[in-house]
Amino acid sequence: MQMLKNDILIRALLRQPVPHTPVWIMRQAGRYLPEYNATRKRAGSFLGLAKNPDFATEVTLQPLARFGLDAAILFSDILTVPDAMGLGLYFAEGEGPKFERPLRDEAAIRALRVPEPRESLGYVIDAVRQIRSALGNSVPLIGFSGSPYTLACYMIEGGGSDDFRTIKSMLYARPDLLHQVLDINARAVIAYLNAQIEAGAQAVMVFDTWGGALSDAAYREFSLEYLRRVIGGLHREWNGEPVPNIVFTKGGGLWLEDIAATGCDAVGLDWTVNIGTARRRIGSRVALQGNLDPAVLFSDRATIRAEAGKVLRNFGSGNGHVFNLGHGISQFTPPEHVGILVDAVHELSRPYH
Ligand code: CP3
Q: Domain span at residue 283?
């Protein structure tokens, strides 16, 4: 870690002192950036970008060239894992991700296997290596995966869903089958994240985007339990350096104590939670990441600064805060507003450290 010129993200995740609050943005490399859209055009498609380590490296670095961000995040997608399991990921124009062969019967579920990351996900592992070398120890690289439950949502629904009718029907009618999928997913996520760490990822984040749509009991049984298994299986250091991990359940405000109890280093917060309240609940055990409403970035300089100031004030003085949005940045965000936010966080957070 001493080798990193800017290691404040890692320090904040470990609740160590920092001169100002680190900031990065979920989906910081994406369609709100014209240079991303230009590279995507050259690559032909989103998957063309994600599956080519040269393109993936190029777009990972784009937001860092513009803004004083304190971390890079691997350019990829959570759905590469089910794709590697043979489900056939594709993007229908304007419709989001879909699978050619969703898990629709018991035979398909029984046939599901844990993919060997260095084989079927070799392009991600190569991208991690290439991005690390391109970063040249400037800022840390964050690796990521979907949570076992969130991956299962896409694998069983065959794409996005408003009501999760197919997976929830299975959850109540055939919980044994869903557990079988989640067990495979948990083992796949552990192998995948550890391979990213071995290739150079310096922190890792698990995106549980849809766990928050479950009932309390179902969240505990079908999402939280597998998050706990994943965290328990991850490398906690590599090459003598700590590799902190972050768990983010969108809509997870009701379960913060339980998420912290998975053993993770940091908990991601969406914008519905007051970060000061969250700190009082779990801040003695974990760092907190978040939690500005992404819609604030549609406003103006003064409002962005004021709203960023509120998040910082709510967290208060001391260690253990990584500034981020409460969810991914919208493609309709004016890019210059991200610069205003990043500078505001750095400037306005100094008095708290
Ligand atoms: O943060 C980053 O910059 C890293 C890149 C990243 C992407 N997807 C790139 C992407 C990360 C971390 C993800 C995670 C992801 N992907 C999640 C979990 C996080 C979350 O947002 O809750 C989920 C649920 C997915 C699945 C997925 N991939 C969806 C629903 C979509 C369509 C989104 C849309 O708005 O159309 C994608 C595609 C995707 N993944 C894009 C990007 C930049 C847009 C693709 C494009 O260029 O057309």
A: 8-352
In a domain, 3, yes or no: no
Distance 50 CA to ligand 1 centre (A): 11
Residue 253 DSSP code: G
Q: Checking DSSP bridges between strand 96-99 and strand 89-92, what pairing results, if any?
A: antiparallel
End-to-end CA distance of the chain: 21
Any atom of ligand 1 within 6 Å of the Cβ of 31 = yes
How far is ligand 1, taken at its centre, from the CA of residue 113, in Å?
A: 24
pLDDT single digits (tens) 99-129: 999 999 999 999 999 999 999 999 999 999 9
pTM confidence score: 0.97
Q: Is 154 a catalytic residue?
A: yes
Question: Has residue 222 been placed in a domain?
Answer: yes
Q: Is 77 a catalytic residue?
A: yes
**How far apart, in whole angstroms, are the C-alpha atoms of residue 323 and residue 326?**
9
Query: Residue 99 maps to which CATH number?
Result: 3.20.20.210
The answer to whether the CB of 157 is under 6 A from ligand 1 is no
